[in-house]
């Protein structure tokens, strides 16, 4: 049991705590981390009662001012941890700790070898992976912050914020993706999912060009402004109307009807040529990137679609033509694409990708590694040796990842029947 006292009131303890695990050693050494009695440091050893055998040693730091001190209070820092390891020359059993008025912490192992963790300024934390007997100061990992001086680790930014300098800044855009531990303010549109489950395109009801041309030349739809604007009838009426106004104003009585008819024919001819030219450039469909704004139906395409692919569950007879497609699929090579979104991991980290083969995993090389959007998205590409495979992805350290996007890609393949 540990009892914390203040010199202002030595008769009444500030709080008490037991380890609650049936082992002794908790509170073997206790100290205040500051002069104000806000944070307490406790050496949490674990020994068996029977033969006093050592099991483990940790250093717990409690925020007494904010959390109090009781059996349910959780420490704000446990040393050693994944970012602050035990000093390389120290033995794991700790026997004593001492704090200075400036917030520095000294730990002694069972041989009396010391390790000193210096208090670090805001925006940094003390790194104990040092060649000396003291810690060194390193910057907070992206996505984390600490705006005060201390020996604690930097904390991840909360939802809706991202790290900026030594603090967390509020994400301003409503379309921003700023999860817990965000490193940058990025929009959802930067990592939209690619929809693969698409219906096979169908040919339009009318595929004869003469019929399509006549249908678009003499259609007149006033329900939509776009249809009225692209309709040749609209421009014919406009030209005829202007001609009538000019003829009346100039008191022209001879041959004006024939002139208006000629003007209407010219407008129809120009419209037909313009429509035919733009419709011609709708082929091939792979190069079309925008709507067909020259027609009332903006989805109009210069293409006919047909397929011989059949569902295997409903196919009774497998033809040679269908079998060729499945042979191509079986021989298809795939590349696994992994995007780590809102993460501080970089290509310089020890990223390990392994193929699970029985009980002995085999490492796979990462063919492409790159970052984007100011280093907030890490993209990896791994060429898969087989189509059926188990993958294990190992990331070092304890950095946050906001989202993971997975996908498969492969080179195109073409097979002709030579007919």
Give the gist of this structure.
It is built from 6 helices and 24 strands. The protein has 419 residues and is α+β, with helices and mostly antiparallel strands.
How would the global form be characterised?
elongated
Strand order of the largest sheet: 3-4-5-6
Radius of gyration: 37 Å
Number of domains: 3
Beta percentage is 25-35%
- SSE order, as H and E? EEEEEHEEEEEEEEEEEEHHHHHEEEEEEE
Mean pLDDT: 83
Structural class: alpha+beta
Uncertain runs with pLDDT below 50, 5 residues or more? none
Q: What is the makeup of the main sheet?
A: 4 strands, antiparallel
List how many beta strands DSSP finds: 24
The helix count comes to: 6
Binned, the helix content reads 10-25%
């Amino acid at each position: 049991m540990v009892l914390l006292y203040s010199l202002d009131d030595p008769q009444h303890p500030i709080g008490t705590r037991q380890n609650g695990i049936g082992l002794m050693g908790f509170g073997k050494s206790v100290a205040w981390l500051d002069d104000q009695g806000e944070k307490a440091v406790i050496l949490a050893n674990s020994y068996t009662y029977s033969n006093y055998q050592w099991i483990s040693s940790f250093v717990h730091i409690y925020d007494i001012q904010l959390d109090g001190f009781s059996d349910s209070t959780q420490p704000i820092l446990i040393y050693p941890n994944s970012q602050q390891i035990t000093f390389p020359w120290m033995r794991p059993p700790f026997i004593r700790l001492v704090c200075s008025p400036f917030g520095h912490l000294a730990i002694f192992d069972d041989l009396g070898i010391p390790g000193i963790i210096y208090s670090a300024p805001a925006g940094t934390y003390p790194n104990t992976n040092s060649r000396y007997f003291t810690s060194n100061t390193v910057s907070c990992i992206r996505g984390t912050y600490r705006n005060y001086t201390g020996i604690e680790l930097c904390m991840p930014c909360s939802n809706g914020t991202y790290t900026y300098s030594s603090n967390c800044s509020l994400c301003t855009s409503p379309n921003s993706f700023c999860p817990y531990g965000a490193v940058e303010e990025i929009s959802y549109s930067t990592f939209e999912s690619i929809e693969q489950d698409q219906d096979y395109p169908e040919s339009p009801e009318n595929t004869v060009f003469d019929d399509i041309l006549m249908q678009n030349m003499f259609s007149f739809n006033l329900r939509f402004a776009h249809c009225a604007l692209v309709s040749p009838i609209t421009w014919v009426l406009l030209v005829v109307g202007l001609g009538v106004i000019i003829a009346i104003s100039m008191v022209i009585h001879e041959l004006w009807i024939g002139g208006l008819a000629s003007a209407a024919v010219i407008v129809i001819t120009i419209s037909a040529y313009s429509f035919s030219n733009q419709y011609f450039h709708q082929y091939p469909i792979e190069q079309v990137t925008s709507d067909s704004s020259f027609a009332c139906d903006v989805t109009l395409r210069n293409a006919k679609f047909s397929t011989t692919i059949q569902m295997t569950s409903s196919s009774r007879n497998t033809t040679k033509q269908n079998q060729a497609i499945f042979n191509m699929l079986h021989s298809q090579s795939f590349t696994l694409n992994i995007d780590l979104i809102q993460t501080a991991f970089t290509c310089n980290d020890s990223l390990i990708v392994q193929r699970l083969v029985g009980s002995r995993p085999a490492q796979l090389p990462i063919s492409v590694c790159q970052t984007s959007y100011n280093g907030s998205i890490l993209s990896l590409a791994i060429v898969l040796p087989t189509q059926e495979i188990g993958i294990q992805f190992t990331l070092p350290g304890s950095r946050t990842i906001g989202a993971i996007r997975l996908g498969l890609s492969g080179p195109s393949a073409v097979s002709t029947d030579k007919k």
